[in-house]
Design a protein that fits this description.
Blueprint (H helix, E strand, L loop, with lengths): L1 E4 L2 E3 L2 H6 L6 E5 L16 H11 L3 E4 L18 H11 L4 E8 L5 H14 L4 E6 L6 H4 L7 H15 L5 E4 L2 E4 L15 E4 L6 H7 L3 E2 L5 H17 L7 E9 L8 E3 L2 E4 L1 H14 L3 E5 L7 H11 L6
Parallel strand pairs: 3-4, 3-14, 4-5, 5-6, 6-9, 9-10, 10-11, 11-13, 11-14
Antiparallel strand pairs: 1-2, 7-8, 12-13
Length: 319
């Protein structure tokens, strides 16, 4: 790990440009598309949208790990396998951070996760940010002969395995396998390690998350509650002797044409004009959120128009 920048450890190019202490950056959840009435998005313009997001100054594009379309969950994500898609986007872009929110570790062998993520990190010039989670779709576990109730322990073992694979002559002995330092995992991550952000609780204790993650992905909450949660996060890091670590949260938005409109609640977010949205984001920044991943699934206006408006009216407040 390299020296700190603005309070956070420096890990790789994507992590460093996305997370700065005391600041807030904005990213977009892929697909950058509206599909309010379907589980399955139209992916026809997907590469051009990510390229546009990069050109407009958004800091990160976030993919999801959705192995199966589970009807009860209501969202099939970006359809493509996240690591295949990361490699594709790495070749289509040059600056934007490429994040996964989040890899469901108990459903993948961590050797494959470590190799795939390090490969894209090298190919992208160090732009990978790896969100990791224990998974929340019970239907997927029997389809992969995995134990849903055991996912917390499997998650911890997978984290240990991935961390070990970043070292020279790795040594690990756990449920996923054993190496004694005589074989090597190549390539190594470009910055020397993969940035791992823990999602939610991932069935771990708050102390474990603070000690083992390079940051925390949490969920939108009422502002007073979110303020308390983030205050507790910072206090926990301090009590455990941990350095400052960033916080990310997603936010669904439906950007209204009237700049002064809103807010009206939608799933995990709101419909509002750009002035209210900007004020809300400034509040999140003040309470310690370092990155917001905007999701336009329920957006009513044309997507490219909304991206242009966000870039013109919102992004300048958060450079």
């Amino acid at each position: 790990m390299r020296d700190n920048i603005d309070g956070f450890a420096r890990i790789n190019r994507g992590y460093d440009q996305t997370f700065r202490a005391g600041r807030l950056s904005l990213g977009l959840v892929v697909p950058i598309a509206a599909y309010p009435d379907s589980r399955v998005p139209d992916m026809s313009d997907h590469p051009a949208r990510v390229q546009l997001a990069e050109a407009l100054g958004f800091r990160a594009a976030w993919l999801r790990d959705v192995p199966f379309d589970v009807p009860g969950f209501g969202d099939a994500g970006q359809l493509y396998d996240p690591f295949v898609y990361l490699g594709y986007l790495a070749a289509q872009t040059s600056r934007i951070a490429l994040g996964v929110s989040s890899v469901v570790l108990p459903l993948r062998h961590p050797a494959h996760v470590a190799k795939a993520a390090a490969s894209v990190d090298q190919l992208s010039g160090g732009r990978v940010i790896l969100g990791v989670a224990s998974g929340d779709r019970p239907d997927e576990y029997p389809a992969m002969n995995a134990d849903f109730d055991d996912r917390g322990e499997a998650f911890r073992a997978a984290i240990d395995y991935i961390r070990a694979m970043g070292s020279t002559a790795p040594r690990i002995d756990n449920r996923f396998g054993r190496t004694d330092g005589t074989i090597e995992m190549l390539p190594k991550p470009r910055g020397g390690r993969l940035p791992l952000l823990i999602t939610g609780s991932s069935r771990q204790s708050p102390d474990w998350i603070a000690q083992h993650g390079d940051g925390w992905m949490t969920y939108p909450r009422p502002m007073q509650m979110q303020h308390q949660v983030l205050s507790d996060w910072r206090a926990r890091l301090d009590d455990l002797g941990q350095p400052p670590k960033p916080v990310l949260q997603p936010l669904y938005i439906d950007l209204a044409a009237d700049p002064d409109e809103g807010p009206q609640p939608i799933h995990l977010g709101f419909r509002a004009g750009h002035r209210w949205l900007t004020a809300h984001l400034k509040q999140l920044r003040a309470m310690g959120v370092n990155h917001v991943a905007l999701n336009l699934r329920f957006n009513r206006a044309p997507i490219n128009q909304t991206l242009d408006q966000l870039a013109h009216d919102v992004l300048p407040h958060f450079h």
